[in-house]
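User: Structure please.
Assistant: Input sequence and predicted structure:
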Amino acid sequence: MSSTVYFVSNNTEDFGDGTSFPPPMEKDLRGLENQFFLFTSLDGVLEKFATAVDAEVEDVQALLDTEESLAAVLEATRGATRRFQTVHGSLLYEDGMRGRLSARRWEPRAVTLDTVSDVSAREIDGHEWFTASVRWLVAEDAHRFASTARSATELHTPGRPASC
Protein backbone atom coordinates (compact mmCIF):
# COMPACT_ATOMS: atom_id res chain seq x y z
CA MET A 1 0.00 0.00 0.00
CA SER A 2 1.39 3.39 -0.95
CA SER A 3 0.75 6.60 0.94
CA THR A 4 0.89 10.19 -0.17
CA VAL A 5 2.99 12.49 1.97
CA TYR A 6 2.42 16.26 2.15
CA PHE A 7 5.36 17.95 3.85
CA VAL A 8 5.40 21.64 4.82
CA SER A 9 8.69 23.45 5.44
CA ASN A 10 10.16 26.75 4.36
CA ASN A 11 13.64 25.27 4.83
CA THR A 12 14.50 25.19 1.12
CA GLU A 13 18.20 24.73 1.85
CA ASP A 14 17.75 21.28 3.40
CA PHE A 15 14.54 20.14 1.68
CA GLY A 16 14.39 21.98 -1.64
CA ASP A 17 11.60 24.09 -3.07
CA GLY A 18 9.15 21.32 -3.95
CA THR A 19 10.20 21.11 -7.58
CA SER A 20 13.69 19.72 -6.91
CA PHE A 21 15.35 18.20 -3.88
CA PRO A 22 18.98 18.35 -2.67
CA PRO A 23 21.06 15.19 -2.21
CA PRO A 24 20.64 12.81 -0.47
CA MET A 25 16.90 13.60 -0.28
CA GLU A 26 16.65 13.46 -4.08
CA LYS A 27 17.90 9.86 -4.02
CA ASP A 28 15.54 8.92 -1.16
CA LEU A 29 12.52 10.23 -3.10
CA ARG A 30 13.37 8.63 -6.44
CA GLY A 31 10.29 6.77 -7.64
CA LEU A 32 8.03 8.60 -5.17
CA GLU A 33 7.52 11.72 -7.29
CA ASN A 34 3.71 11.25 -7.31
CA GLN A 35 3.54 10.41 -3.61
CA PHE A 36 5.66 13.12 -1.94
CA PHE A 37 4.71 16.79 -2.12
CA LEU A 38 6.64 19.59 -0.45
CA PHE A 39 4.98 22.91 0.30
CA THR A 40 7.18 25.83 1.34
CA SER A 41 4.27 27.59 3.08
CA LEU A 42 0.73 26.96 4.24
CA ASP A 43 -0.44 28.97 1.22
CA GLY A 44 0.37 25.95 -0.96
CA VAL A 45 -1.58 23.66 1.35
CA LEU A 46 -4.59 25.96 1.16
CA GLU A 47 -4.40 26.11 -2.63
CA LYS A 48 -4.28 22.30 -2.81
CA PHE A 49 -6.93 21.39 -0.24
CA ALA A 50 -9.16 24.41 0.37
CA THR A 51 -11.52 26.49 -1.69
CA ALA A 52 -11.85 30.22 -1.08
CA VAL A 53 -15.40 31.18 -0.11
CA ASP A 54 -17.08 34.54 0.38
CA ALA A 55 -17.04 35.78 3.95
CA GLU A 56 -18.43 38.89 5.53
CA VAL A 57 -17.57 40.61 8.79
CA GLU A 58 -21.09 39.79 9.98
CA ASP A 59 -20.38 36.05 9.53
CA VAL A 60 -17.45 36.18 11.94
CA GLN A 61 -19.25 38.50 14.34
CA ALA A 62 -22.13 36.02 14.59
CA LEU A 63 -19.68 33.19 15.37
CA LEU A 64 -17.73 35.15 17.99
CA ASP A 65 -20.42 37.15 19.75
CA THR A 66 -21.77 34.17 21.68
CA GLU A 67 -21.86 33.29 25.37
CA GLU A 68 -19.34 30.48 24.77
CA SER A 69 -16.84 32.69 22.89
CA LEU A 70 -17.09 35.57 25.35
CA ALA A 71 -16.49 33.18 28.26
CA ALA A 72 -13.48 31.63 26.46
CA VAL A 73 -11.91 35.04 25.80
CA LEU A 74 -12.49 36.14 29.38
CA GLU A 75 -10.92 32.93 30.71
CA ALA A 76 -7.91 33.31 28.39
CA THR A 77 -7.31 36.88 29.55
CA ARG A 78 -7.28 35.81 33.18
CA GLY A 79 -4.18 33.78 32.45
CA ALA A 80 -2.42 36.59 30.57
CA THR A 81 1.01 37.47 31.90
CA ARG A 82 0.95 41.05 30.61
CA ARG A 83 -1.76 43.64 30.83
CA PHE A 84 -2.02 46.76 28.72
CA GLN A 85 -4.62 49.37 28.09
CA THR A 86 -5.01 51.60 25.08
CA VAL A 87 -5.90 55.22 25.56
CA HIS A 88 -6.49 57.30 22.43
CA GLY A 89 -4.35 54.91 20.36
CA SER A 90 -1.31 54.94 22.70
CA LEU A 91 -0.22 51.74 24.36
CA LEU A 92 0.09 52.33 28.09
CA TYR A 93 0.78 50.05 31.00
CA GLU A 94 -1.75 49.67 33.80
CA ASP A 95 -0.41 52.57 35.84
CA GLY A 96 -0.40 54.89 32.80
CA MET A 97 3.38 55.11 32.72
CA ARG A 98 5.29 53.73 29.78
CA GLY A 99 7.72 51.00 30.77
CA ARG A 100 6.15 50.19 34.14
CA LEU A 101 3.99 47.15 34.75
CA SER A 102 1.86 46.61 37.82
CA ALA A 103 2.44 43.43 39.81
CA ARG A 104 -1.22 43.37 40.83
CA ARG A 105 -3.10 40.32 39.51
CA TRP A 106 -5.61 41.15 36.81
CA GLU A 107 -9.13 39.83 37.41
CA PRO A 108 -11.19 40.74 34.32
CA ARG A 109 -14.94 40.29 34.70
CA ALA A 110 -16.42 41.78 31.53
CA VAL A 111 -15.77 41.38 27.82
CA THR A 112 -17.27 42.60 24.57
CA LEU A 113 -16.48 42.05 20.92
CA ASP A 114 -15.42 45.45 19.59
CA THR A 115 -14.35 45.11 15.95
CA VAL A 116 -13.85 42.45 13.30
CA SER A 117 -11.91 43.15 10.09
CA ASP A 118 -9.76 41.53 7.39
CA VAL A 119 -12.09 38.54 7.09
CA SER A 120 -11.33 35.62 4.78
CA ALA A 121 -12.68 32.09 4.60
CA ARG A 122 -11.85 28.71 3.11
CA GLU A 123 -13.87 25.55 2.79
CA ILE A 124 -12.20 22.23 3.51
CA ASP A 125 -14.17 19.02 3.20
CA GLY A 126 -17.51 20.76 3.70
CA HIS A 127 -16.35 22.86 6.69
CA GLU A 128 -15.80 26.62 6.54
CA TRP A 129 -12.75 28.08 8.32
CA PHE A 130 -12.43 31.82 8.92
CA THR A 131 -9.50 34.10 9.65
CA ALA A 132 -9.95 37.67 10.83
CA SER A 133 -8.44 40.45 12.88
CA VAL A 134 -10.53 40.82 16.02
CA ARG A 135 -10.46 43.36 18.84
CA TRP A 136 -11.94 42.50 22.22
CA LEU A 137 -12.52 44.96 25.06
CA VAL A 138 -11.89 43.38 28.45
CA ALA A 139 -12.19 45.02 31.88
CA GLU A 140 -12.31 44.32 35.57
CA ASP A 141 -15.06 46.90 35.87
CA ALA A 142 -17.60 47.36 33.06
CA HIS A 143 -17.90 51.06 33.92
CA ARG A 144 -14.32 51.67 32.67
CA PHE A 145 -15.67 51.44 29.13
CA ALA A 146 -18.30 54.11 29.71
CA SER A 147 -16.00 56.77 28.22
CA THR A 148 -15.42 54.81 25.01
CA ALA A 149 -17.66 54.75 21.96
CA ARG A 150 -19.35 51.64 23.36
CA SER A 151 -21.52 52.01 26.42
CA ALA A 152 -20.99 50.02 29.58
CA THR A 153 -24.32 48.27 28.99
CA GLU A 154 -22.89 46.65 25.85
CA LEU A 155 -20.30 44.79 27.89
CA HIS A 156 -21.07 41.22 28.71
CA THR A 157 -20.23 39.33 31.84
CA PRO A 158 -20.62 35.62 31.00
CA GLY A 159 -23.35 34.01 33.03
CA ARG A 160 -25.17 37.33 33.51
CA PRO A 161 -27.63 39.13 31.24
CA ALA A 162 -25.93 41.40 28.65
CA SER A 163 -27.58 44.50 30.14
CA CYS A 164 -25.83 44.24 33.51
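The two ends are 61 Å apart (CA to CA).
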